[in-house]
Amino acid sequence: MSSVTKLPNFPLTNLATAQFTSTNTAFKGESTIIDFWTTKCTRCPAALDELDSLACSPLYKNVKFASICCDLCDGARNIIEQTDEPRWAHVHHYYMGFEHKEEAKRILGFKSVPFYVVLNEDGEIVQMGGKKDIDFDNIPGMMKESPRGVEADVGEEKAFVLDMDF
Description:
It is a single chain. It is globular and about 40 Å long. The chain has 166 residues and is α+β, with helices and mostly antiparallel strands. Strands 2-1-5-4-3-6-7 form a seven-stranded mixed β-sheet. Strands 8-9-10 form a three-stranded antiparallel β-sheet, with no helix packed on it. It is built from four helices and ten strands, in the order ββαβαβαβαβββββ. This is Thioredoxin domain-containing protein. It comes from Cyclotella cryptica.
């Protein structure tokens, strides 16, 4: 596994806006789970389905979810936009060109996708690897469940939301 502690600043294209950005700009100041994927990967759609589900959970309301397609920009758009409602609507989608994908693979040490990188709000890598390498119950910014409810931020104070399903 790589010893990189910060995500390098790679150029990206935001697939929703077609605007150019970079990893430093797109993920600045937010705890983020990034899924690197390709349009040819057979496991990637299921992984993105799972990320989209996590993104809908109140436990992850303070976490940004992102995908970076590393092979075909138009292919990624076609997959994401194949129905009236965008697929994986709770995930922010980006594209990374081939040369930068190869650099990312070399620097981050990944050989297959899906490959996850988890960043804290300072842009530091706190976890990375395949699905079995990521502790999705220990993500920076994640709300911690209590035995009878979920702790929720309400302005400056914390509120306790009771779980009434008992």
